[in-house]
Amino acid sequence: MTKADLVEVVAKKASLTAKAARESVAAVFGAVTDSLKKGEKVVVTGFGTFMVRTRKSRTGRNPQTGAPINIPARKTPGFTAGKALKKVVR
Questions:
Q1: Which one of 6, 13, 18, 36 has the fewest beta carbons within 10 angstroms of its own beta carbon?
Q2: 20 DSSP 8-state letter
Q3: What pLDDT is recorded for position 4?
Q4: Which helix (H) or strand (E) holds 76?
Q5: Distances (CA, A) of 55 to 13, 52, 58
Q6: Number of structural domains, the chain?
């Protein structure tokens, strides 16, 4: 499902115009993004939790030369599915 498909489904289920549905979907994604930028968790009960995960720095290898290189620590977005979503998918 693409973002356009999601907008179409939201428009049909919520009886909204395509423009209103597009703005609603954009607002939800924007709110999640803004919260993750601040380092906050976003918990959607019954669906799941969006969070910021931190990867530690580590030593890797250059695949061409085999020389060790330092890979710095970084933050990545993460998602954990909730019980209800897991149950529906099974």
A1: 13
A2: H
A3: 94
A4: strand 74-81
A5: 39, 10, 9
A6: 1
Q: CB 7: neighbour CB atoms within 10 A?
A: 20
DSSP structure class, residue 57:
P
Q: 59 with 71: CB under 8 angstroms?
A: yes
Share of the chain above pLDDT 70, in %: 100
Measure the CA–CA gap between 74 and 61, rounded to whole angstroms. 18
The pLDDT-based confidence of 64 (bands split at 50, 70, 90) is very high
CA distance 10 to 41: 24
| Residue 18 to residue 73: CA distance in whole angstroms | 41
Full-model pTM: 0.79
| Structural domain contains residue 22 | yes
CATH code for the domain of 8: 4.10.520.10
Parallel, antiparallel or unpaired: strands 42-44 and 68-71: unpaired
- Residue 43: which of 61, 27, 31 has the closest Cα? 31
